[in-house]
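Why does residue order matter? Because the sequence determines the fold. Keep that principle in mind as you read this record.
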Amino acid sequence: MTHVDRCNDADRAWVTAAIAAVEADANRSADTHLLPFPLPRDWGIDLYLKDESVHPTGSLKHRLARSLFLYGLCNGWIGPQTTIVEASSGSTAISEAYFARMLGLPFIAVMPASTSAEKISLIEFQGARCHLVDDPAKVVIEARWLAEDLGGHFMDQFTYAERATDWRGNNNIAESIYHQMEQERYPIPVWVVVGAGTGGTSATIGRYARFRRLPTKLCVVDPEHSAFYPAWAAVDWTVSTGRGSRIEGIGRPTVEASFLPSVVDRMMHVPDAASVAAARAASRVLGRRVGGSTGTNLWGAFSLIAELRAAGRTGSLVTLLCDGGERYSDSYYSDEWVAQQGLDLAPHLATIYRFLADSTWTPH
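Structure:
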């Protein structure tokens, strides 16, 4: 009898230790806070923010990075000498760089040249290298080429996000939300509102609600220049905008493989000026800065709350505080940057403050 044995005991032992280290991180940080957003109690509608900024790497993408590393390790794609390459606008790269450093692996983040200096600094702080690309639409292609040239592993968040996440439970973001809502006035949310970057979070929440036979509906909000909303409206998943999103972390020029439209109940297109205005307005209300994608989420949530109020309905909504606004002092919180982008925040701020006063929703 003949056989071919490719087992390397030392490498297998390293993988076993690596998985234990990543799982230990999950044990320490999987449960994040669920914050009530202040609304008049007599509205009969409660809004909550799942605060993903408290993860060790400061964003929702910490969960995704952890899942992708476990997926790669368990699939045999990542070993003790593997160079990790990812295409990312910043937050995923920050989180993956954290895990790469934890495991002693080199990491290269391929990202648009327009990525904020704060995010680049955070990636480099983790000992990673940033590879900047002028055309945002070519970031994934460049990352794939780079990984092939180096003999490394391309993490490919846009393909594997929905596959790597355990959507049935295991303290994923959906299970955590529903567990934390158990003691609230309306424990089962009417709506959960999220943005789409990879589509992994919306897939996880939509699948979990169905699996648990819950009536919660899922709304996905989408910024300018992103393909998700126009593709949804046209029922054409080949739509391509050829442009990157100004709202970092969400929006893609093409519909990515991890986006599952079949679990989405509604989509909303949110102007970038509205996202930035909502982030700034929320920062005043909460007493802390939030990122632009949180603004996109809140714009969608406010619209749905106004709709429920007009229909005389009560209930709860949950959305995500994806990351803190400290990373965006030179963009979303810079009046100079806003002017350079040609964004007029005033009408959107007026819409938000009118809504917060009496639930009237009259977007421009």
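The domain at 61-161 is CATH 3.40.50.1100 (Rossmann fold).
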